[in-house]
Amino acid sequence: MMEQPTAMHVVRIKSRHTDKQGRERQYESRLLRRTYRDGGKIRNETLANLSKMPDRIVDAVEAALKGEALVPAGQATASIARSLPHGHVAAVYAMACRLGLPALLGPAGRQRDLALALIVSRVVAPGSKLSTIAWWGDVTLGPDLGVGDATTDEAYAAMDWLQARQDAIERRLARRHLAPEANPRRMALFDLSSSWLEGSHCPLGARGYSRDGKKGNVQIEYGLLTDPEGRPVAVRVFEGSTADPAAFTEILGTVHDDFQLRKMVLVGDRGMITTARIGAIRELDEKYAWITALRAPAIKKLMADDGPLQLSLFDEQDLAEITSGDFPGERLIACRNPVLAGERARKREALLAATEKLLAPIAARAAAGRLAGAAAIGAKAGEVIGKYKMAKHFNVTITDTSLAIERKQDQIEEEARLDGIYVIRTPVPATGLDAASTVTAYKNLKHVERDFRHIKSDDLDLRPVFHRLERRVRGHVLICMLAAYLTWHLRQAWAPLTYTDEEPPQQASPVAPARRSASAGAKASRQHDETGRPYRSFQGLLAHLGTLTRNELRFAGTPATVPVLAEPTSEQRQAFDLIGTAIPLTLRK
């Protein structure tokens, strides 16, 4: 009689044998053993040799000894007790872990789990906090992170916890992406955008220039700081009436004082890095530099009276360096994009024609006597003449019985001379950044604009903002920024499965319009890869990953359930391969 039957186990011993003909054969011995203690030593006793038994019987014995419940073959019917979408949240969570995002947020605990769940949810299924909390129970994110039972109060508390840690999070991101080791040119991009608020009680809400075209709503503004490739590093939220230069002043102090970065080159558009802001940069740190562009009046001055900027510069090239006494110690790089020039000329003509079309019925009514009096005619004309911002290009003559308009052709032609021309200004010497690289650095602001598109509409749905408290608005924007950081890396990794251009071609000139590669063109035309799998948008790929479910199987006669993943498609397997991880059964191992 065995003393310790519970210590029995199956041992599999593999061996190899090479015969005289050089053929190698592999053998597997399967032994039933028990383990027992003899004084201070652990000993093994072989109870039976199972090597000659069928594999299914050996597997059943091994499973039974491990405590698994076995069901007779005739009763082995199974039902799916529950099925939860898994692949999309598993992929985004895996990328978050690969990037070290959990540790970046703060110490382990329920607050961090909730904050991380809010960020992952913003990537996969952006929505209100109430709908997000309800959604957690419908996917594996809730049970695996232990947040399926969270309340709205807990979610808001986690937002407050995250927002209080914003400075520490951004400092670590700055060290990771803006420090000299990762960013040898020591360059950062900054731009400003806005989103409207629902409600009227948020102290940050104010009326200002709406980039969303929502002129009737109060709004907030937020500035995004990125590395040269567009990775989000920091975000700042401002009142809705904040001007671009004021936002730049704050981020300048953040980069210099909080991030402790020295010898930086900050890139911003012409409305942000103004002459006054350049003075502030010089006063702050002489090692700081900038790259921006001149406004139209300054360009017009450079072209006037045989100035340094003449159209003949572009006869054989599309960019040229010039100098001007108005900008001492700075390099000016003049560029002309003929495609942009043609588009601006086309748009101007269309707007002029549209303004004339709006004014024509008013002139007809005045001529027919149905609208009389200079004041009445002028009031009607004033309602429409500024709709397309073309009033400056018309001479308007109004009498008591007529309305006559005439284009200011000389003024229109003078404005047309500037079409397609822009001038980059920077103090960075040519030895550090040549003309072409300087233009490229300025045009890289398109990466920040792309991030804004992803944050506001394409992926993360930041707008509109429903929060009332200032700290909640800041926490909401921070969650969207961190989700954008995740999205940036996911889009890069999943480029082979989406319409993203994997290898954008090198441009012959930085001024020329960007063009996609032949492979990207082939993706767009064929819409399927060589094996017949469809290419997808980023959101389409996330939706496809969501069809990879985790199913709870229940076998007849047993109360317990067994978690089993659905069979993944080849696309789903590749999506996980591209982010360097196997498909996990649970988010946390």
What does this structure look like?
The chain has helices at residues 55-65, 87-98, 101-105, 110-124, 129-136, 141-145, 152-164, 166-177, 244-258, 275-284, 296-303, 338-367, 374-385, 409-416, 435-443, 445-458, 470-493, 518-526, 538-545, 570-578; strands spanning 8-18, 24-38, 41-49, 78-85, 187-196, 219-226, 232-239, 265-267, 289-293, 319-322, 331-336, 394-398, 403-407, 421-426, 549-555, 561-565. The strands form 4 sheets. Strands 7-6-5-8-9-14-11-10 form an 8-stranded mixed β-sheet, sandwiched between helices. A 3-stranded antiparallel β-sheet has the order 1-2-3. Strand 8, helix 10 (275-284) and strand 9 form a beta-alpha-beta unit. It is elongated and about 115 Å long. Among the domains are: 5-68, no CATH class; 171-297 and 431-466, 2-Layer Sandwich (Nucleotidyltransferase, domain 5); 339-416. The chain is α+β, with helices and mostly antiparallel strands and 589 residues long. Helix 4 packs across helix 7 (152-164) and helix 7 (152-164) packs across helix 17 (470-493).
